[in-house]
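The records we work with from here on pair a chain with its fold. These numbers are not coordinates but entries in a learned vocabulary of local backbone shapes. To see the layout at work, look at the sequence and tokens printed below:
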Amino acid sequence: MNIKTINIKNRTQSLKELENFKNKNYGRVDIKIENLHLNQLNELLGKRIFKKNDAYISAETLWELMQPIGQKKQHNYHGFSPKDILEILGSLTKPYCILKTHLSRFTIISSIMLNKTRLLTIVEINAALSKSKAAKINKIVTIYPKDHIDQYIGKRTILYLK
């Protein structure tokens, strides 16, 4: 089975595809996230930072995010449901906050909360696809809940705050 896209606007199909990723680790397969237009955030952030590069996430990352919390002492297992993942991805273009965390990495703090906790999404700009190093994409590296968000924000460069 070779699933290559998740379409934010096609909720029913995307939930089925995400359920497949939850049940099986497909490894280093790049998954394009259609209709996630980070370039439309605003003039500075969207067009100059995220550009018109497509957004991707690896199948391995999706699998890890949906595994039960703390399984095998794995810090990347967050127990997200396919519905959670779809809502988080859909919220990225209407963030609560955007921070610069590294030369090519940005933290998008979601406007939605899960279990009363803000969600952080790390996006690497101008990243390469697993199979094509020449491609330039916005790669979602991870998503995770974060307590004490004000302390986290205070230690980084704020680019946008709602």
Remarks:
- DSSP finds five helices and eight strands in the chain.
- The chain has one domain: 5-94+123-147.
- The two ends are 41 Å apart (CA to CA).
